[in-house]
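Final report, Chapter 2: Outcomes

The project's central promise was a pipeline that accepts a single protein chain and returns its three-dimensional structure in a standardized token representation, suitable for archiving and comparison. That pipeline is now operational. To close this chapter, we reproduce one record exactly as it appears in the project archive, with the input sequence first and the structure output second.
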Amino acid sequence: MRIGLAGVGRIGAFHAETLRDLPDVDEVVVSDLDASAARAVAERLGVAHAASPSEMLAEGVDGFVIATATPGHGPLLRLGLEAGVPTFCEKPVAASLDETMDLAKLVSTSSTPVHVGFQRRFDRGYQRARQAVADRELGFVHGIRAQTHDQAPPHADYIPTSGGLFRDCSIHDFDIIRFVTGREVASVYATGANKGAAFFSEAGDVDTAAAVLTLDDGILVSLSATRYNGGGHDVRMEVLGSEGTIGVGYDDSLALVSAEPGATYPAGPQHWSFMERFLPAYRAELTAFAAVARGELASPCTVDDALQAFRVAEACELSRRENRPVTLDEIPSL
């Protein structure tokens, strides 16, 4: 297989290295708006490079991976669909709800598979929680606690184009809540605050947020997100049921210190980035995409899945701005 990749920033270079090491991938070709960066990554990894995604697709690839900044996702996804090449796109597929809906409509008329990069679906802990819910191992589920706490904030230049904390960060929680429960979000009530750098509020964003989600079967979800979690990168979920509770992210890397005298858990070391926390999941995700590109697997995360998660993020942002509960019926859909 020959896989093309657009975007050689932090996640793009990581994906290129992962793809290079997959047994079924014979060649990886990278490109970037910064041609010198593409050449440098290609030389470091021992892969090929192309002048542009268009050139790469014209030369012929079996799969196309989009790992650019968010503004490039939509145009490149359209390019992949036009070429009829199975495409993997990092989340989100677009920066706005309208463009996401347009892309979902376009994909629905195409036979070309698109796999959206929500890597938590490939994390063994979340998969175990999903199975526990499906098997009713926990009895009836009445509550969920979900959190995404970054150890340190991104660069100030990233925030104005990020879409905000809910769309950029919590969207992973929105997707994985749907994945684990098989339910949809019915309503949200969200808030946020700034106690860190001024560039968050200057961009109309927040550095810390919380929300209560009500799912369509009455499950209550408490959710939190922050850009400042000095103890380490902390992503967790607890699923609470009438017969038991299961937790994801509760190994020795848990980014907290116990206040109980004599406690030695968690032993550490902590994770300091999302790439470290989800390294095995990213590898499993791209292995699955290779199977999608070969026609052996249907997309495990579709553009419609991405749209539903984006709609929840939109609802939370509207709730935060207007300080009121928001139902998902208020958010446009297909």
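Archive annotation: The chain has a mean pLDDT of 97.
This record, like all others produced under the grant, will remain available to the consortium after the project formally closes.
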